[in-house]
Amino acid sequence: MMTPISVFNRAKTQKCQTPSTGFTLLELVLVLSIIVMASILVVPTFGGLEGRTFGVQVRAASSLLNYARRTAVVTGQPSTASFYPILDEEEDDANTKLSSVGTWQSNGAKLHFRDSTDRESEIQKLIEITFYPEGGSTGGTLLLVQGAQLVSIKIDPFTGRVVTEYEEN
Q1: Are 143 and 113 in contact (CB under 8 A)?
Q2: What's the CATH number for 49-168?
Q3: Which of 68, 85, 107, 138 has minimal CB crowding within 10 Å?
């Protein structure tokens, strides 16, 4: 038969110990971090779909201009980017040039063009920006307006550099 250890009394420890309730700090931090990550994914979807599609249009227009610039320099031939506020398939076929590298069509955004003399006009049918092999271009500024959003895409006539600026309207 074993003798009980005098130092440890099981009856005393069970009376003093109360069951733990609540959450540990680690559990709270883990749950809060999951909530934060979910909100990062969910909150942008509540922003306007219109704003995101406008941003996509701006990036597509800027990419087309940069592509036309690179194509002109690499091939040694002038290249043209065409911008339509509303694209008509028959009109596109009639206006397609041999040097055209692509077309951009507005999806609800108004398209304006400001030339080097700061004369601004709304584009009704077509605007073409041509880039030359030595790096120059026809230049000017494309203005895209949708609601309260205004973006200017500046094309330097001497270097052909394309700069996109988001402005307050």
Answers
A1: yes
A2: 3.55.40.10
A3: 107
